[in-house]
Amino acid sequence: MLSDQQMLRIPGPTPIPPSVQRAMSQPMIGHRDRDTKELLRKIKPKLKPIFGTVQNVEILAGSGTAGLEAAVINTVQPGDEVLVIVTGAFGERFVQICNAYNIITHQIHVSWGDAVTPEKVESYLQSHPSIKAVMATFCETSTGVLNPIQQLAKVIHQSSEALYIVDGVSSIGAIEANMDAWGIDILVTGSQKAFMLPPGLTFIAASSRAWEKIEANDQSRYYFDLRKYHHSSLLDSTPFTPSLTLLYGLEQVIKLLDQEGLANVFGRHDLMMKMMRAAFHNLGIPLLTSEKAASPTVTAIKPNTFQADELRKVLKDTFGLVTAGGQGELKGKIIRIGHMGYCSPTDILQVISSIEIGLKMIGMDITLGKGTQAAQKIFLRSGKH
Amino acid sequence: MLSDQQMLRIPGPTPIPPSVQRAMSQPMIGHRDRDTKELLRKIKPKLKPIFGTVQNVEILAGSGTAGLEAAVINTVQPGDEVLVIVTGAFGERFVQICNAYNIITHQIHVSWGDAVTPEKVESYLQSHPSIKAVMATFCETSTGVLNPIQQLAKVIHQSSEALYIVDGVSSIGAIEANMDAWGIDILVTGSQKAFMLPPGLTFIAASSRAWEKIEANDQSRYYFDLRKYHHSSLLDSTPFTPSLTLLYGLEQVIKLLDQEGLANVFGRHDLMMKMMRAAFHNLGIPLLTSEKAASPTVTAIKPNTFQADELRKVLKDTFGLVTAGGQGELKGKIIRIGHMGYCSPTDILQVISSIEIGLKMIGMDITLGKGTQAAQKIFLRSGKH
Questions:
Q1: How far is B228 from chain A (nearest CA, A)?
Q2: Final residue of a domain: which of A258, A273, A293?
Q3: What is the DSSP code (8-state) at residue A97?
């Protein structure tokens, strides 16, 4: 195997584009200097269309979980009842955060690999009027499920006064989000997914009704206190030293997204999903999720004729192609392939054709090129050429 | 002025060494991969001598303030009484964090520019036996004061059962710290100071008696829950996605510190402080702190014959030399010059000789070279050549 080649195709962290890597190599600057203010002034307005909001998108130094925790503790208080929609490991993370703060969770659990239905949420909320917030995962990274976030918004607001908090960690920047139009109250993401950056930043936007709750909430918090970020934003600043290197990278990421155009970015992800799914379908390898529940950013297969982890090992050893296994109850049972951020249709062809060889190497009786061909056809039919 | 030249001489963020910059440009890896485990296995034991501890040093993604908050909320609970030693803006930050969590603060205030005396703390603790923790700032970045952390440890443990929590943000890695031998219970630092990295990581080590409190503490927390980091450490992992780019950089920083030798690193900072002080002394410009209270990482001058901010502006415009002004009550009254991390005696000569020109440019009647000469003499006398 060619040394020093690695194709990182896990659902985040994702590869960094060379120009972003170079942007992050700029010399350090003072975090209270004009340079930092200018950087923030350039970056922050550009985040709004990605979130689909007119609100400021606040930037915190921390992992995606830090953002989720900030979303929860700024809006909900100990003893409050919330509804968490659990469709996989990241739905469970919301539950864990709430548990840590003595927030009472109602939970709707859906089989891992399925999306929640709006009807289920609607009837639950109607019979539980005390619920103050609903937490949902846009793309459930652990399964490759895309939950119907827009439709959920509708039923949530029709049937309750609850705030709607959405984990957009492996979706925002790859999948269209219209936070304001749909009625999402808090939307969170991280830097290491569709934003094509290293981990270390988390982004949060809040609706005006969420800001009212945030301002009035007396839950103890300091570093995660969104009021501090909001206040600093008005001065083109941050309350605490920001991750300057990642801000440099973000400036370049925004240029790349602008050059491609957001609609094209979303279209590319949709196309990659379709190529992936057609390939596995044609190879006769079961997909974990239905077409309706599939995420444009991560595809999971659930093989019934070979060991998932055996194929993953061969792919890594032979090609340096790194995929992800299952989490929780799906450990050892699935393979997850990330296709978000710095990933294009030609990368999908590479992944699929390499997987075909891997399947042969572990003794599977498949026709080489059959999956690739299906993906190629999808590409040609898409007109994206 | 030569375009694209900037000399960042603020007390953090500090310049990044080229080899660290290159290390951070390595391609992204999976945060749950063997590569990340190996990286953590290489890095983490090397942090222990820098902190002077046999305990694990935990790494969180976040600003230094995130580390200070984690230190507080893992060990203290609402309603507990603590003593905060306030010698400047970062002592006040401890107070703000405690206030956010309804922790009752006793405060010893010292004039900005002075260090606290152990006697003051001793007598305070003797008359207030209910105090559960004492919080102190090793180097107070806002004034360039180095508090007597070792001596404080002694009086704190002799006169109370309180935990001793130390903000080491602009000292650890530049100044000797013997956490275990001195009796520090929690020691915190950040990446963007003596560690020569961009901001975005915070480091925390805890003594075994602090770990007992941490384990027993039921204060609500999730992302900042040090128990999670401790548990993951045992598996060479992290509970949440780490800032992988900064970990790559940290691996190289540790190589640089190893090559120089920690004792020499500390010696270099001490020498730079002496050169700075001798220069200003010889130029007749008042230093903010006494020799005894001076920090090896940042020097503040408090001019009485010219406007601090006027000189700062000339230095930036003429040489791209960036210094820091005063914070809080010292705003506009002082100039702070950082000399930590990627900074050497020759850089100090550059700073001083440039400042001499700046002084002339703002109309001061000084003898050019007088400060530089004093610094040169200190260097030659030190035998570090």
A1: 12
A2: A258
A3: H
Cβ–Cβ contact A206 with B under 8 A? no
Q: Which two tokens stand for residue A175?
A: 């999948």
Q: Does residue A378 belong to any structural domain of this protein?
A: yes
For chain B, what is the mean pLDDT? 96
Distance CA A115, CA A140 (A): 9
The answer, for A10 touching chain B at a CB cutoff of 8 Å, is yes
B223 touches chain A (CB under 8 A): yes
Q: Does B8 touch chain A (CB under 8 A)?
A: yes
Tally of residues, chain A: 385
% of chain A beyond a pLDDT of 90: 96
Taking CA–CA distances from B60, the nearest residue in chain A reads A62
Helix B208-216 vs helix B226-233: crossing angle, to nearest 10: 120
Same domain, B139 and B279: no
Residues B237 and B276 grouped into a single domain: no
Q: Which pLDDT value is given to residue A385?
A: 63
Neighbours of B161 (CB within 10 A): 12
Closest residue in chain B to residue A98, using alpha carbons only: B222
The string of pLDDT tens digits covering residues B65-113 is 999 999 999 999 999 999 999 999 999 999 999 999 999 999 999 999 9
Count of domains forming chain B: 2
Give the distance between the most distant pair of CA atoms in chain B: 63
**Structural domain of A327:** 7-14+261-382
Instruction: Pull the structure tokens for residue B114.
Output: 């002075």
Q: Determine whether B152 is exposed, middle or buried from the number of CB atoms within 10 Å of its CB (0-12, 13-18, 19+).
A: buried
DSSP-derived secondary structure letter, B292: T
- Residue B1 domain-assigned? no
A317 touches chain B (CB under 8 A): no
Residue B335 lies in a domain: yes
Residue of chain A whose Cα is closest to the Cα of B96: A222
Q: Please report, for the domain that includes residue B366, its CATH number.
A: 3.90.1150.10
Whether residue A172 sits in one domain with residue A26: yes
Q: Output the six-digit token pair for A11.
A: 């659902």
Which parts of chain B have pLDDT scores under 50?
none
Residues A66, B48: Cα–Cα separation, whole Å: 26
CA atoms of A200 and B346, how far apart (whole Å):
34
Domain C-terminal end among A258, A290, A307: A258
- Shortest CB distance from A246 goes to which of B6, B12, B200? B200
With 0-12 / 13-18 / 19 or more C-beta atoms within 10 angstroms meaning exposed / middle / buried, residue A310 is: middle
Label residues B289-301 b or e (16+ Cβ within 10 Å = b): beeebbbbbbbbb
* CB-count burial class (<10 Å; 0-12, 13-18, 19+) for A138: buried
* Residue B5 near chain A (CB below 8 Å): no
Q: Do A100 and B225 touch (CB under 8 A)?
A: yes
Residue A205, domain member (yes or no): yes
